[in-house]
Amino acid sequence: MPDIVAETERLVLRTVDDDDAELHNRLLNTPAMMARLGGVMEMHEIEARHAKVMALYAREGFGFLFMIEKATGEMVGYCGIKRVDSPHASNQGDHEMGWLVREDRWRRGYAEEAVRAIIDWAFGPVEAPHLVALTSEANIGSWKLMQKLGMERRKDLDFDDPAYPPEDRTTILYSLTRAQWQEHIA
C-alpha cells in the first residue's frame, strides 16, 4: 500500500508501489513527454527505475512520488527527490528534485503545485541542506519553473551528458537553499 507523503489543493503525492510500472508506462511514457528526458523507455527500464525509487525511499525516506489528481483519482504525473547520480555531474549526492506531468494536464499549474510541496518536504522532514534541479537548455518550461520557484542558475555545475541527443546534451542546473526558499515564499 503506497504512503501519502503530501497533499496540495488538487493533488495527493504518494509513494511508488510495486504495481505502478504499467500505469507509468501507459500515462507518462509518451514521445512528447519523454522528448527532453532521453526518449521513450522500455518496460524493463521503467521497472528498474521504480525499483530504484522504492529502494531510495526505504533507505533514505525520500524518492519520487506519483501525483494523483484529487478530483478524478487519476495519476497525472510524478515528482520528487533523488540523489544526483549522473557520472558527469560534479555535485553527485546532492538532493535533486524533478517532475513530469502527463500531456493532457499540461499548463494547469500541477507541476508548480506539486514541486512547492516537494520543496517543503525536502526542507522539512528530509532535512536537505539545499536542492538542485537539472534540465536541458531546450527544456524551457522546466527552467522557467525553476526560476519562478526562486531557484538560482548555477552555470558552474553544468555538464555535458553524451547519453542525450545534441540538443539536450548540455545539462543545466539550478539550486535553492532553505534561506532562498523562505525568502521567496515570504
From TrEMBL:
InterPro entries: Acyl_CoA_acyltransferase (IPR016181), GNAT_dom (IPR000182), N-acetyltransferase (IPR051531). Gene3D superfamilies: 3.40.630.30. The keyword Transferase applies. The keyword Translocase does not apply. Keywords: Transferase. Residues 11-179 form the N-acetyltransferase domain. One of its GO terms (molecular function) is acyltransferase activity, transferring groups other than amino-acyl groups. It comes from the Bacteria. It holds the Pfam family Acetyltransf_3. PANTHER family: GNAT FAMILY, PUTATIVE (AFU_ORTHOLOGUE AFUA_3G00765)-RELATED-RELATED, N-ACETYLTRANSFERASE DOMAIN-CONTAINING PROTEIN. This is GNAT family N-acetyltransferase.
